[in-house]
Write a structure and sequence with these properties.
single chain; mainly beta; 28-stranded antiparallel barrel; 3-stranded antiparallel sheet; disordered N terminus
């Protein structure tokens, strides 16, 4: 590899009869590593020291047969054999995704024609970790084909795929196996410049096997129609609509229909009219629910400073166990004023809500309620008196079912349930999930609510300083209720301030939520630094602290996240990088402390790279302590 530093690049083309090679790129590398691991759980101590040597090669080629537009081929692969045994993999690299074996192939027939065919195959074995907490070993095997046409009459795309995915969490020995195949078809049509129509059909067959709760098998059929049409060239008057048919059979069988229509009119004098309607129907083995919803809105923009809005919304729901009617109407106004030293923003919104429910008290099943799992707390299910034993959490597609105790846990707060993600599980930070559960449905009830929301903000000196306030209240009257009706009477006050100055930004926010259901107090601090010194030093640091306290049961949760990076260009061929981070989560059912650091030096001479450095990792989590450190040297030749 050292001798290769002076070799010029290869000829960009090579022809062997009908086959023509265009490019070849890749890397040859050699790495040595020494690392130590210490695991302590209660009174048990386990230590391990490892040394190993790894060499590898990575290649990527592109070529074609006969002519570039007839048949093209892209082929790539990677292989990194190691000298260690499998047991060592309980401590894989804590900072990088590490590939052991990989093969990618893609071929396209008639790529420059209106009708083309593409086929691919991907094989991959690699190791990675989630949030520096959970070590994962993964084997992926997938292949498929895509037939597409870009003709002017009826463009379409047809895709078939098959996927097999085996994943193991190494320390916990929890496995996740997936076998999936599907067919997707899409047709688009445009009759003139003002419209667009799309019809899509898909069939997916899912087979998932977990360590718990077992195998999940579903077949899913989807048919969707989306339309967009404007009546004029300026697109001031138009409509958007969507229609979805969804049918699923297997472990969980249900079908649903979701239809949506919206009309938009931009009138003179900056007046906008908008109206929309929605119909939703879902049926499974235990219930049938239909909902119709209509909304109208008038918006007006006066100059650039004053925006006003008036709206109304009506919804009617028919369930197997109850009938519900809702009517909501309100208005809002937003005022923006530029002053000599900054800008003032004022906003007020009010609506009145009428709700009438007819039915017998009983248990209902809530299906696929969307929820964002924020580590800051407050991830409450919308229905009170839910049964924690019936909670099921999935990903947004509804296909991957998460496991309680490994991916999330359930907290009980008064009459409500909170879903809390577990760090290192399969739910990403701030990820969206769908929750299904059983809850108690109240009997006949009626109430009217008044809701007020206010916002005031002041920015000064070209956004150098910003202070703001958000407030809201909700009260009820004419309440006629039976058992299991829970109303949220609250007043909320949020005060915050931010500073933006060149390389520095920071702020603090205080949130006081006085609620009849789940009152809380939350304080957030954040600070960000980013600057460069004489083009040699690049420094950045980010930190946040969130202190969240539930005022009823006196539960405190604190989240601290600090990370920093420094890069120094010592010479044209020498770069030194430093990364460090600290994460702390303390609260109910969570006690995590994580410290990570990485220091490395990179030497580059033409296409020869030498990298050396050290890593440090310390984790305190669930009565266990894990410490990991390593030093490494890597030599690579890129071509």
């Amino acid at each position: 590899m050292i001798l290769g530093t002076g070799i010029i690049a290869q000829d960009p083309s090579l022809s062997l009869g009908p086959w023509n090679l265009i490019t070849v790129t890749g890397e040859v590398g050699l790495e040595g590593m020494f690392q130590q691991r210490e695991t302590r759980y209660s009174e048990l101590l386990d230590e391990q020291t490892s040394k190993y040597l790894i060499g590898g090669i990575r290649l990527h080629t592109s070529s074609y047969f006969w002519k570039p537009g007839i048949l093209s081929l892209m082929l790539g692969g990677e292989y990194n054999p190691e000298t260690r045994n499998e047991k060592y993999l309980v401590i894989p690299d804590r900072s990088e995704v590490r590939t052991l074996k990989k093969l990618d192939m893609r071929t396209t027939l008639f790529g420059d024609r209106k009708l083309n065919l593409t086929a691919w195959i991907n094989l991959d074995q690699h190791y990675f970790n989630r949030e520096n907490l959970t070590n994962i070993r993964t084997n992926n095997r997938q292949w498929g084909a895509n037939l597409g046409s870009s003709n002017k009459i009826l463009p379409f795309n047809l895709r078939y795929y098959t996927l097999n995915w085996d994943q193991q969490e190494i320390e916990a020995e929890r496995t996740f196996n997936m076998a999936q195949q599907g067919l997707q078809a899409r047709v688009t049509k445009t009759f003139h410049r003002h419209d667009k129509h799309e019809l899509a059909y898909s069939y997916d067959d899912y087979h998932y096997t977990y360590s718990e709760p077992g195998e999940v098998t579903n077949e899913v059929y989807r048919l969707a129609l989306n339309n967009q049409f404007f009546f004029d060239r300026e697109k001031r008057f138009g409509s958007r609509s969507s229609l979805l048919f969804y049918d699923q059979a297997g472990t969980y069988t249900f079908n649903k229909v979701d239809a949506f229509e919206q009309l938009i009119f931009h009138l003179p004098l900056n007046v906008d009219l908008a109206g929309s309607g929605n119909f939703y129907r879902l049926e499974d083995s235990g219930q049938l629910i239909t909902t119709g919803r209509a909304r109208s809105e008038v918006r007006h923009q006066l100059y650039e400073s004053l925006y006003s809005q008036v709206f109304s919304e009506y919804a009617a729901t028919r369930h197997t166990l109850y009938r519900e009617q809702e009517f909501r109407a309100g208005a809002g106004i937003r005022y923006t004023k530029t002053i000599p030293v900054g800008r003032i923003n004022l906003e007020y919104r009010y609506y009145r809500h009428h709700n009438t429910l007819e039915g017998e008290p009983g248990t209902i099943h809530i299906v696929n309620e969307p929820l964002i799992l924020d580590d800051g707390g407050g991830n409450l299910l919308s229905k009170p008196f839910a049964d924690p034993q019936t909670v099921m959490v999935t990903d947004p597609s509804g296909a991957i079912r998460y496991s309680e105790g490994s991916d999330y846990f359930v907290n009980v707060f008064n009459e409500f349930l909170e879903i809390v993600r577990i760090p290192g599980g399969r739910i990403p930070p701030g990820g969206e999930v769908l929750a299904s559960y059983d809850a108690m449905q109240p009997g006949n009830s009626h109430y009217e609510a008044n809701n007020h929301q206010f916002h005031a903000g002041l920015t000064l000196f070209d956004r150098l300083f910003e202070v703001y306030y958000r407030g809201g209240t909700q009260g009820f009257q004419d309440v006629e209720s039976a058992a299991f009706l829970t109303l949220n009477r609250y007043d909320q006050h949020v005060i915050g301030g931010r500073v933006y100055y060149r390389f520095l930004s920071g702020g603090v926010e205080y949130d006081r939520y006085n609620s009849s259901l789940v009152p809380y107090r939350r304080i957030n601090y954040f600070l960000n630094l980013n600057f460069r010194i004489r083009s040699r030093w690049i420094l950045s640091a980010n930190g946040s602290l969130r202190d969240y306290s539930l005022l009823g049961p006196e539960v405190n949760q604190r989240y601290i996240n600090i990370s920093g990076r420094a890069s120094y260009q010592a010479a044209r061929f020498i770069t030194i990088n430093l990364h460090a981070g600290y994460l702390s989560q303390q609260g109910r059912n969570i006690d995590l402390g994580l410290l990570t650091g990485r220091l490395e030096a990179v030497f580059k001479i033409r296409n020869l790279y030498l990298k050396t450095g050290t890593n440090y990792y310390n984790r305190n989590y669930t009565n266990s302590n894990f410490t990991y450190s390593r030093v490494f040297v890597r030599l690579a030749r890129v071509f």
